[in-house]
Amino acid sequence: TLFRSILTSEIVVGDVLLINSGVVLPADGLLIRGSNVMCDESSLTGEPKDISKTPDGDFYMLSGTAVKEGSGCMLVTCIGLFSEEGIINKLITG
Predict the structure, then answer these.
(1) CA nearest neighbour of 37 among 74, 72, 63, 65
(2) How far out from the chain centre does Cα 19 lie?
(3) Among 9, 13, 68, 3, CA closest to 37
């Protein structure tokens, strides 16, 4: 398996990203592998509790949210203005 570091500006749909605690997600995606992944989605949803993410349950990862615990792999599905964070920002700024 080939792993390499890239800039967030180089991420494209279809990339698989390694995620771990402390990371703010740069894109929307699907959790395809994970262990004890908990995300703080309060920046987008206002939900005060961390959300448990599993590949066979709530697997949708949202850009702009923080991984609070765990690690895993995420398949990128949306970036930039097409991500949930991008859509919300566009609605706010017009």
Answers:
(1) 72
(2) 8
(3) 68
* Cα separation, 6 vs 18, whole angstroms: 11
Take residue 80 and report the two structure tokens written for it.
């930039």
Q: What pTM does this model have?
A: 0.87
Question: How confident is the model over 38-66, as pLDDT tens digits?
Answer: 999 998 888 889 999 999 999 999 999 99
φ, ψ (nearest 5 deg) of residue 93: -90, -15
CA distance 5 to 18: 10
Q: How far is CA 68 from CA 6, 9, 18, 83, in A?
A: 22, 23, 14, 20
